[in-house]
Amino acid sequence: MTLQTPARLYAVTGTESVYGGRSFSLTPGATVWGDFRPDMPAVESTAEGDACVVQGADFLCRSAAGLARGGRLSLKGFDWRIVSFDEGADGTVRVRLERIHP
User: Fold this and answer.
1) Which of 17, 21, 41, 48 keeps 20 to 30 A from 91, CA to CA?
2) pTM of the predicted model, to two decimals?
3) CATH label of the domain that carries residue 74
């Protein structure tokens, strides 16, 4: 595993607004180095029947410190949502990422 790609880790915090909605903010964390492996983008349908382009990726790194489901990694100029992560027997952490193309 070659750790050639830097990614900025962000924690997502949400608060309820006075009008009953939710407001989200990103809190910057550490820079994580890893091996970035993007999937091919795919067209999917939304609940409203619209089409959108979704792309997944794996990000392999050596530590799960600071990672949380729903958090964000910013790398290669895009923000990716952390869908899941698991630690292998060899100590390698596989982070599953997803982003929706505008």
Assistant:
1) 41
2) 0.84
3) 2.40.10.270
